[in-house]
Amino acid sequence: MSNVSAAPDLDFWEFVNCGICHLEFVKENGTLSTVPFWLTECGHVVCNSHINPDHSCSECGGQGVQLMPLARELEPPMSQWFASAPTAFDAVGYALRFQMNMMANLLRYFRKKYIQYRPLYDRLKEEHAETKRLKKLVDELKLENQQLRQHLHINNGDERTLHSNKRRRVDEDVSYAGHRTSSPRSTASVPTPHGPDRLTLPPGHHPPHFNSRQSIQTYDSAGSQQSIA
Ligand SMILES: [Zn+2]
Ligand SMILES: [Zn+2]
Q1: Are residues 48 and 21 in the same domain?
Q2: Can the peptide bond before residue 76 be classed as cis, meaning omega within 30 degrees of 0?
Q3: Residues with CB under 5 A from ligand 1 (ion)
Q4: Which of 8, 88, 155, 207 is the most buried (most CB within 10 A)?
C-alpha cells in the first residue's frame, strides 16, 4: 500500500479526447493536437470536425449550447475539471489542515483565558448579586426616608413651635453670654425685645391706640389670637 502514494500523479490532459472520434487533445509526444478542440457548456469535449453548425452538442444532443476553445489554461471552474484529482485532494487536505490549525490555536487561546478568568467571573457574579441586593435596600430606605419626611411635614406646626421655642432659648443664652463678654455686637442686641413677646397681648387686654391700619398689620404679622374688633 505504501508504494501507492509513491506513484506519479496522473496528468489528466493525457486522456482528454473528442467524445465522438476519440482524437487525442495532447499527442503522445506531449504537443497539442493541430485540430482545434471545443469544450461545451454541457461539459463535453469535441474536436473541430464534430461541432454542429446548429449549436447542438454532438455528444449529448443538447440544444443551443455555448462553446469555448479548449486550452491547457482555463478559467475556473472549468480548469478544475482537468486538474489532477489526487493533487486537488492534497490541496483540499492542506487547506483543511491550515484552517483547523488556525481555529485550534484560537480555541486553545480562549480556553486558556476561560480557565484563567473563571474564578474572577464567579466572584464578579456574586458581587453583582450583592450590589443588586444593596441597591434594592437603598431604594427601600430612600422610600422610608421620604415617608418619614412627609410625616414630619404633616406635623410641621408642632415642629415649628418646638423650633421657635428652642431658638428663643438659644437667643436668651446668647444675650446672657453678651453680658458677660460685653462684646459691642452682643450688647447691642440685649436691649432689643423679642418681636412676638411685645406684640402678643395676654387674653382680656385691649390693644393700645395706634391708627387702625398699623394696628391691623401688627396683629396680622404677630399672629396673635386677639380679636381686632
Ligand atoms: Zn471528433
Ligand atoms: Zn453535451
Answers
A1: yes
A2: no
A3: 18, 20-21, 47, 50
A4: 207
